[in-house]
Amino acid sequence: MKNVYFFFSIILFVSVYNICIAQDTTDYYDRGCSKYNNKDYNGAIQDFTKDIQLHPRNYFSYVMRGMSYDYLKQVDYAITDYNNALELDSTLDYVYELRAITFQKSELYEAALSDFTRAMDLNPSEIRIINERGNLYYDRKEYDKAIDDFSKSIFLNPADPNAYFYRGLTKFMLDDIKAACEDWTKARDLGDKDSQKWLDKNCNK
Q1: CB 120 within 8 A of CB 129
Q2: What is the pLDDT of residues 69-121, one digit of tens each?
Q3: CA distance 53 to 43
Q4: Among residues 56, 73, 110, 135, which is most buried (max CB within 10 A)?
Q5: Is 84 helix (H, G, I), strand (E, B) or coil?
């Protein structure tokens, strides 16, 4: 399977950073965002920590410091910061998503599923979250649940080639070759480059 964790996490981290720079906050916070953008994650952590000391209820400093820790592979610190942000505001769907990805990297799959589901409850039309949970179900060999998520994603955005590709791959694992080939064909027609390889190997015979 394609490295979907990396693909979706990059999209999420960029989206959250765009929120970061849109905040009307303090100099320490702004400097932290700038350092984060320049990949100075240690420097960003120092500035976000100073902002938290001055403004302990600014949940976004916890979020951004958690993301900085995440990039440094200090996952325990990242999870703690995501926890702190959610204690301040339990409706932040993207923080549940961030924490789910971090749990997934730590092989805490049940916790990751729980957070993806909570994020979906808060933002049921976010296709990225749906596909992320579908891929986790796929990795856990819960193929029927994975297909349900990919089908939901396709319903919300029929022009997304990724969901067709992943659903085809899942159907292939269930030996439904005909349906898999149909999904890969649709994904290819929508611009997915990997689908043709699977079609050539398994369908065009």
Answers
A1: yes
A2: 999 999 999 999 999 999 999 999 999 999 999 999 899 999 999 999 999 99
A3: 16
A4: 135
A5: helix
